[in-house]
Amino acid sequence: MKFKFVFPLLITLLFMSVGFAQVGIGTTDPDASSALDITSTTSGLLIPRMTNNEKLNISSPATGLLVYDTDNSCLSQNVGTASSPDWVCLTQAATRFFYLPSMNIDVSSTGTGRTVDLYNEYKSQFSSPLVSSSGASGSIPYFGATELEYYVTAYDTSVLENLSIDANGVMTYDVIDSASECSFINVVLVIK
Q1: What's the pLDDT tens digit per position in 66-116?
Q2: Quick one: CA torsion of 148, 122, 187, 105, rounded to 10 degrees?
Q3: Looking at residues 157-162, what average pLDDT do you find?
Q4: R_g of the chain computed on alpha carbons
Q5: Measured between alpha carbons, how far is 78 from 85 in angstroms, rounded to an integer?
Q6: For the whole model, what pTM was predicted?
Q7: SS (H, E, C) the chain
């Protein structure tokens, strides 16, 4: 008689312990970094949705791990390794770079060690555009400072010299002469 009660209890406990492990569908050995590992050639999956920070905090994400990044509004895949993740927005994979929006930098007089925060220029323009189309949300999604690489592809060498950019997008430069109406600088941002 006691067996009737003990056996269902053991089965219930067994299923409860499995409920906290990774789940595999079509596989008996799901990857440890996944909440769900599905192997199929005939069906799709609605994947987990999370913020960029939540995605970056996944411990040892498997190569090929997918999430929907709600901050960047993209399907994101780890194309790196578990020890060196490299998250790529697949829905933006065709465009992994873009030019920094137009901005002014201080070249009103000569001087050394001037700085401009390229990331803040980008973020402020994307988060608060001056004009948007009817029904638009009012802001453009933007990446975090450390999700980007910063490049200067061309600049007026008669006006600027000693350019450098730190990992957070702060550019340091020297002004050696007055700018003209033809002076320029091209800044390109690359999505890591």
Answers
A1: 999 998 888 899 989 999 999 988 875 556 788 888 888 889 899 999 999
A2: -140
A3: 96
A4: 25
A5: 6
A6: 0.54
A7: CHHHHHHHHHHHHHHHHHCCCCEEECCCCCCCCCCEEECCCCCCCCCCEECHHHHHCCCCCCCCCEEEECCCCEEEEECCCCCCCCEEEHHHCCCCEEECCCCCCCCCCCEEEEEEEHHHHHHHHHHCCCCCCCCCCCCCCCCCHHHEEEEEEEECCCCEEEEEECCCCEEEEEECCCCCCCCCEEEEEEEC
The tokens describing 44, both together, are 């799709």
Amino acid, single-letter form, for residue 18: V
| The pair of three-digit structure tokens given for residue 41, joined into one six-digit string | 């050639």
